[in-house]
Design brief:
Helix content: 25-40%
Largest sheet: 9 strands, mixed
Distance between the termini: 76 Å
Structural class: alpha/beta
Order of helices and strands: HHEHHEEHEHHEEHHHHEHEEEEEEEEHEE
Number of helices: 13
Number of strands: 17
CATH architecture: 3-Layer(aba) Sandwich
CATH class: Alpha Beta
Shape: globular
Number of domains: 1
């Protein structure tokens, strides 16, 4: 008996010409797509297939990034002995083999420059801080200052790229994208990863901030950060154009998504599914984002705590309050950039202005989260891509100086989310040039942050071009000394 010939639809005929590997791959992807759709109906986090490796201490991260490299000598790393050495040449034995940037490598003299600012101890923990940060000093018992950070990158773009993606060369996923990939999204109406940028009060040329710093690299694009603007619509094209209401927009999206689903059935490209999901999220954001940025429900006492700039969209104070509101609504990773910290000259005047921008909002954010019971599972990270040199760049004057880039040591602080509060970790030499105790490399920091999120940095991997990649590359040790 002869079996009847199978009948194929025209769109299926090309499948006969695909090899066995392509057929199996497409079959698996189709099965995975059905499973993904079923999971998506249950919860946003589970829809991504993401679960922590172990019980997390933190559910979310708020990263306060001071773009340009704040001076650790003038803020957190108190070096009183430098007063006696002020103006003397930095010994070559202290410099060792560390590289200098092209801005000071040819400088004939490298005069030691002590800070012009007074320091004092704060809180029961006795943490030393500059006079420029009195409000932050009032919450010293809630934070952990790391004074022994170090990095091999000494220029802005490689240094910030290394800190936020684990590699000095562009192209890899940012920390926020890894967090989204590893843990999924708790919110159905907002992205897992949101970014805000504020301009500092110091009148300095703005160093570039490239969108790839919050990109997804080789991860699916659904994990990339979404940047909110400080003026106009927070997200471009968030508002419907004139003559288009919500019902009309819904009909348009239904038609587009229908075409995309047909395209996916033919090509089985997961990026098409991402596009459908992003269209739907964008539609929901038309309602959720205006509610997010509205401060009508905030009390006057809360607004006053963040300071007068909180009512000006796009300022650091306004973005800190928005960060708390995002955290309440389940955003996984919140990235705030504050520009203007690249103080090669006029450091005393410029750092005053920068600190006046961030001091009160940072302290208010900690207090705000704490009183709402959210600090325990919200991890706050503050810092820049590197520190500044002990010596002055250019001429050292009685009341004025500048400092060059320095990766050999710098300071950061953390709070909440499993961090040991009231802690001072690590130490630098008396010149604030080298780490002498408990060094923390940027890979160690990232490994520790992932650990607090319940993720093993060695197991959070993604295969691309035949290799398993991870945020910490092949490095990174958990810094147990800063964990609660």
């Amino acid at each position: 008996m002869q079996c009847p010939k199978p009948v194929f639809e025209p769109d299926v005929l090309p499948e006969l010409h695909r090899n066995r590997r392509q057929f199996l791959s497409r079959s698996l992807m189709s099965s995975g797509g059905m499973a993904l759709a079923a999971l998506a109906a249950e919860s946003p986090a589970r829809a991504s297939g993401a679960v922590p490796h172990f019980t997390p201490r933190a559910k979310r991260v708020i990263c306060l990034f001071m773009h340009g490299g704040p001076s650790q000598l003038d803020l957190f790393d108190y070096k009183p002995k430098l007063k006696k050495l002020h103006g003397q040449e930095l010994p070559a034995s202290v410099r060792g083999e560390q590289r200098l940037t092209g801005m000071t490598s040819g400088q004939k003299s490298l005069p030691i420059t002590s800070s012009i600012f007074r320091f004092r101890q704060h809180g029961d923990c006795g943490t030393w801080m500059t006079e420029l940060l009195p409000e932050l000093g009032s919450v010293a018992d809630d934070i952990c200052v790391i004074r022994s950070m170090h990095t091999e990158a000494i220029n802005h773009d490689p240094a910030i790229t290394l800190l936020q993606t684990g590699h000095q060369q562009p192209g890899r996923p940012s920390f926020g994208a890894w967090a989204s990939y590893g843990l999924g999204n708790e919110s159905s109406n907002l992205p897992a990863f949101l970014v805000m940028i504020s301009r500092g009060s110091a009148a300095r040329p703005a160093d570039p901030l490239y969108a790839r710093l919050w990109g997804s690299g080789f991860l699916p694009t659904t994990h990339q950060g979404v940047s909110l603007r400080g003026n106009g619509d927070p997200v471009l094209y968030l508002s419907n154009p004139n003559g288009v209401d919500s019902d009309t927009r819904r009909e348009q999206l239904d038609a587009i998504n229908s075409l995309n689903r047909r395209h996916f059935a033919r090509e089985l490209d997961p990026e098409i599914q991402t596009r459908i999901a992003q269209y739907e999220l964008a539609f929901r954001m038309q309602t959720s984002v205006p509610d997010l940025i509205s401060l009508q429900n905030e009390t006057e006492s809360t607004l006053d705590d963040y300071g007068p700039q909180v009512r000006t969209p796009g300022t650091f104070a306004a973005n800190c309050l928005l960060a708390r509101r995002m955290a309440e609504q389940g955003v996984r990773f919140i990235q705030l950039y504050h520009r203007g910290w690249d103080q090669h000259y006029n450091l005393p005047s410029d750092i005053r202005l920068q600190c006046s921008d961030i001091d009160r909002p940072c302290a208010a954010l900690i207090r705000d989260l704490k009183q709402r019971g959210m600090l325990d599972d919200t991890l706050i990270v503050w810092g820049g891509e590197f520190g500044r040199t002990t010596y002055s760049q250019g001429k050292l004057e009685a009341a004025n100086y500048g400092r060059d880039h320095h990766g050999g040591c710098f300071s950061m602080w953390l709070a909440g989310g499993g961090i040991r509060p009231g802690t001072q970790y690590g130490a630098t030499d008396e010149f604030c040039y080298n780490v002498i105790q408990d060094g923390v490399h940027v890979h160690d920091l990232n490994a520790t942050l992932l650990h607090l999120l319940g993720l093993n940095h060695e197991h959070l991997t993604y295969r691309s071009e035949g290799r398993d990649y991870r945020l910490t590359d092949v490095y990174g040790q958990i810094v147990n000394g800063i964990l609660a």
